[in-house]
Amino acid sequence: MTVRLVIVDDHPVVRDGLRGMFVEQADVEIVGEAADGEQGLAVAVRERPDVVLTDLRMPGLGGAEFIRALAERVPSARVLVLTTYDGDDDVLPAVAAGAIGFLLKDSPREEVFRAVRAAAAGETVLSPAVASRLLDQVRRPAPRPAELSERERTVLALVARGCTNKEAAAALFISETTVKTHLAHIYTKLGVSDRASAVAAAYDRGLLP
């Protein structure tokens, strides 16, 4: 089977180099090239390639946004990332967006050839550095939600009963400013922005009877 390949990279030298590499591969046909994500999407829609070999950081449409657009417009195309960047801000969004493989540009050419063929077959391909980052992310314990203090729970309980800040302050013999401060901390800990959402979130988490 011949693998139909589209190359997307904003550096002409890189595209020329990749084209020269794949000329030697009888089972890979380059059916299109593009200098950015918008062009790459147009080419992929027109050519319906098996694999799109793409950089991440490009002008205009690039990175995870480009990969996501490809998945929507050309779901049959497998996206293989070939880039110089391997930070969490690059790897994780790209994989989450649908990239089936992730290689660094210093990978040996034979590894790139194997990756393109594997991607066409639906196999996941990750460089060792990228695989290590993903494993670290999976193994990293999820952050525990911040717990409300006893006073914050009391303030929230009064709010849940319909008390205003003034009424809560009077009930607890504290100032309205202190009540507002407690509420601000509660919003932050619960990840909400208003009283109603705070009460709803507290009930969902079993913080209120």
Automatic annotation (TrEMBL):
Residues 4-120 form the Response regulatory domain. It comes from the Bacteria. The keyword Transcription applies. InterPro entries: CheY-like_superfamily, NreC/VraR/RcsB-like_REC, Sig_transdc_resp-reg_C-effctor, Sig_transdc_resp-reg_receiver, Tscrpt_reg_LuxR_C, WalR-like. Keywords: DNA-binding, Phosphoprotein, Transcription, Transcription regulation. Residues 141-206 form the HTH luxR-type domain. The modification 4-aspartylphosphate is found at residue 55. Transmembrane segments: none annotated. PANTHER family: TRANSCRIPTIONAL REGULATORY PROTEIN NARL-RELATED, TWO-COMPONENT RESPONSE REGULATOR. This is Response regulator.
